[in-house]
Amino acid sequence: MATAYSLDLREKILTAWQNQEGSQRQIAERFKVSLTFVYNLLKRYRETGEIAPRPQGGDRRSKLKGENEHLLEELVKEKKDIYLGELKEKIFERTGIQVSESSLCRYMQKLKLRRKKTVTVMREC
Questions:
Q1: Distance (Å, rounded) from C-alpha 37 to C-alpha 104?
Q2: pLDDT in tens, 63-98
Q3: Torsion from C-alpha of 21, 23, 26, 30, nearest 10 degrees
Q4: CA–CA dist 102, 123 (Å, integer)
């Protein structure tokens, strides 16, 4: 994973820009960073006054824990061919927790829950 540029480098870029020591492109070349980084840094500075790096990543803990984990198991056992969209809606109805379909899929894989689709055979007349 790439690390954020240091605060010191950010301050040097900002100072160079404030002292009109060149265009954004020239400043990017001088400090060996991308033009996009300089553009975004200056835009953020103008909008918020901040230049410090933002925190990386996010909270990746599962929303489904304890009772809700058992609810997921129950719903899948009740209806073996349930669609992820349906599952998502039922979990929201019962718990008020919004979960993405991709999260549900990963969670079901973790719990080794399988959904088996029923196949309808069409008869010929």
A1: 35
A2: 777 777 788 888 888 887 888 888 889 889 988 888
A3: 40
A4: 35
Q: What is the mean pLDDT of residues 27-35?
A: 96
Domain extent, residue 75, equals 67-110
Asked whether residue 119 is assigned to any structural domain, the reply reads no
Quick one: which of 34, 55, 31 has its CA closest to 14? Answer: 31
**Is residue 118 a part of any domain in this protein?**
no
Q: Which two tokens stand for residue 82?
A: 């349930």
* Position 44 in a domain: yes
Structure tokens at 57: 């990543």
C-beta of residue 76 within 8 angstroms of C-beta of residue 87: yes
**Cβ 28 vs Cβ 37: under 8 Å:** yes
Query: Does 116 map to a domain?
Result: no
State which H helix or E strand residue 62 sits in.
none
Do residue 106 and residue 71 come from a single domain?
Answer: yes
pLDDT at 123: 57
Structural domains in the chain (count)? 2
